Amino acid sequence: MSTVLPYYPAKLHEGATWYIAFYVIDPRTGKLSRRRIKWNRIEKISERRRQGKEMCRQLNERLARGWNPLAEELASRSQSLLPDAAREFLREKEKRFEEGTVRADTLRSYRSYLSMIEKHIPIGSIPIVWAFSEKPLSHF
Fold first, then answer.
1. This protein's superkingdom (predicted)?
2. Helix (H), strand (E) at residue 129
3. How many Cβ atoms are within 10 Å of 117's Cβ, its own excluded?
4. CA 112/CA 71 separation, integer angstroms
5. CA 4, CA 8: separation in Å to the nearest integer?
6. 3-state DSSP call for residue 22?
7. pTM summary value
8. H or E stretch including 104?
């Protein structure tokens, strides 16, 4: 009798873009969702490979103990005030821009979207953000 795991183990993928990929159950949909961690930042190939394998080992240990990054993220952000959620979103995108994983035009677009939202929604009128994603955001 086989056991179905709620995840696929992390694996290092080498190529033009190195990344670590694994699948976990998305608590919102109940379906498997792929998570990718870019792994190009280490210049020396042998060191990149060694650290990538170590990261996979650590991720797989956490996954085996029941860790789900999507459930963790959902719980931590499920009841945020709109201004706090917007600031956190922008801070995360600016960090990714500095890492080189988000383009300047993309960051500019995110800032523009948030500016439009602030114009249409008075700051104090929405106390809590339950579910907020790029799709509803792009409709403004």
1. Bacteria
2. none
3. 16
4. 29
5. 10
6. strand
7. 0.54
8. helix 104-120
